[in-house]
Amino acid sequence: METRTPRGFHDVLPDEVRRWQFIEDNARRIFDLYGFSEIRIPVLEFTEVFARSLGTTTDIVEKEMYTFTDRDGSSITLRPEGTAGVVRAFVENSMHAKSPVSKLWYSGMMFRHERPQKGRYRGFYQIGAELLGPEDPASDADLIAMVWKFLESIGLSDRLTLEISSLGDQRCRPQYKEKLVAYFKPEADRLCPDCRRRLGTNPLRILDCKEEGCRKIAAGAPKMMDNLCGECAAHFGAVREYLGSAGVPYTINPKIVRGLDYYTRTVFEVTTNELGSQNAVAAGGRYDGLVEELGGPGTPAVGFATGMERLVLLHEKAHPGGFRREIKVFIAYVGEGTETAAFRLTAALRERGVPAEMEYGGKSLKSQLKRADKSGAVYTFIIGEDELSRGKVKLRRMETSSEEEVDIEAAPALSF
Q: The domain 329-413: what is its CATH number?
């Protein structure tokens, strides 16, 4: 029997969860401020949802998906990302007919069979949001501004850089791909095996290769930003103008290539130099053809996702400590009949909203006080047989070890 997690999966232990909750609570608050509503989608989808949306030549579909055959013979995949599932739900539930604009956010576990690294797991958590309906560049800027506001709210924006670019659309990208093929073809023998294959399937992915040799060759490749059609250039210019008017700091990075085929026009990444090679903290962009690809009406859309594990790692660096579970009052007891009184006092404190804990099993007073100190309790009530017989209880301030007696019936009403 294996008593460990599979490779690339991990537990989030109680000592870590409060930091996760802090980040999640801020995401919920900021997304609500921008008018986004939560959607909860299945962790499983038919494989075709991802094959059609992500593109059959992407690394995710080719190498990383957890796919299996269900008992009825259908092909099922554990979701590797959230956007495709949200769009499938949007189409299946005819959400386009209910409102011209849908603002949806999600969170949950994703699955990719890739090499585990620091901040990168096979089972990992994401928070993301999708804005479906508007084609206006203001919607791109609004979503990006929301992402930046969220990162500010958790105290990370001073450690991050927002980078934006444009991938063009179906009018200008085919010509750009032709230029890339013409550039890389003479260098094919020097490319890694994956990039030699990409040359015939998806040459844009060569620009995103992490192999040093491919990176050096790609450094001189034509840039999409120099090959945008007039409409895409105007769209990107407007996005920049809106971001500037909102005071969102950004830099232009023409080398951004999102790894999924559905992206068009605006793309962006939020990066840091504090997590080694895994420098992307959040990323997203526009995907105007995805809804139609999954059987819905032509619907422009823009979205993003952020990896929780990387956010947590960065947050721990920026804000170490401070996320311990709060125990305001600990109740210790010793002697016959005192456990019932301790239980009653604990319940009364919790009824008033005071975080309280008590010992179980009647350990020594010394042991209980040690646990009270370790728990971080500010105060400890001590109930002994003598105090109980007089209707009293000792109140100890843990920081100074000073004590006083108070009426046990009045104890829950004290100001803590």
A: 3.40.50.800
